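May I ask for a single protein's sequence together with how it folds?
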Amino acid sequence: MGTLSVDKILKTSTGAATFILPAADGSAGNVMQTDGAGQLSVAALAANTVGNTQMADDAVGVAELSATGTASGTTALFGDNAWKTVSDVSGIASMQVFTTLGSQTWTRPTDITKVMIEVQAGGGGGSRGMTTTFCGGSGGAYAKKFLDVSSISSSTIVVGLGGAGATSNGVAGTDGADSSWTDGTNTITCGKGVGGATGAYGTAAGGTATGGDINIQGGVGGSVDNKAAGQSMFGAGGYNGRAGEYVPNAGSGYGSGGGGGYNVNAAAGAQGIVIVTEYK
């Protein structure tokens, strides 16, 4: 069998490149490569290059990946080519729910940059009367707002109580109380639900809200038998009642109104709530 001995390879086309063959034959698994100027050489695959060996089942592991950070049992590789723990990833991180009545303080946790705030005022209590002179309390207002709190360290939160139901004929229900968020830059105020009225076929107007991206008025408190008190974003208002037949119901969700009573004690409105969903 004959041997062809040459130093260069030249394609016959006009202007084609001339390649100079390497002197060494390299090692098993090496590849032929060019320096871009016609010189060929034999070399191993560059680091992190996926070849036939790496294509074998389970052969591509963490060592073959080029990424920042440290791979461990508590990290994952993300689209920015970095190993991160779940706590480093942006998104919902925590939630604080405020149901204690009155004023209190929200303090921004470390690494939290944004919050979604939901504020619900307290509902009004029902009135007590005869025939057509009783009425359910109205629902408190609701507001929702998304805020960047990177420069806000704390906020004053107020959770409003629910109004009491009347216990004597001809007496109106007690109003609920406002709920709010105040951080020095942003103020969200949700108006209280109103106590049930005592006039014939009276109604109670729902509370109104300001300062939210979404501001929703509380439901109207209705009058006469089987009519409901005002609803809130968290539930239905209580039903009105009649002595000897059915008892007025309290509001079923935060901020809803209490049912009025026909010659029977009226029901209380439900208290408010403030929910702060926290994001990294």
Remarks:
- The CA atoms of residues 258 and 269 lie 4 Å apart.
- The helical segments are 52-55.
- DSSP finds one helix and 19 strands in the chain.
